[in-house]
Structures are given as C-alpha cells and as structure tokens.
C-alpha cells in the first residue's frame, strides 16, 4: 500500500492499523470516515509513530487517543 497517496482507502488502512496496535477498548467508535483528507499528513505521522513502537504505556495510549480525537472532522 502506497501511503504517500492521499485516499480514503489509505485513511481506513491507517486508522485500522492504529486501532489494532493500540488495542483501544473503544476501537469500534473510531471509524475511518471520521477523518478528513485535509489532515492526512498528521494521520500518517501518527501512523508511522504507532507502527514503529512495540509497546505503549497507558499515558502514551491516552495521549495518542487524544490526538486522534483532535484529528477527527
């Protein structure tokens, strides 16, 4: 998948990857259509950070979830 291309499919892929990696309890409430392509680069940056780490502290998960909320439409 070429994540350098802005697309709804890539947003969906990244959102699902982030949710899976963070194992968020309320993951079903985070949907790809909640995110706008205007913030694609920010979402891509978050995706890269999340995918690069093996483990997350509770405070890191909370901070990342807060950031996801800010990126929503």
TrEMBL record:
It comes from the Bacteria. This is DUF1128 domain-containing protein. It comes from Paenibacillus hodogayensis.
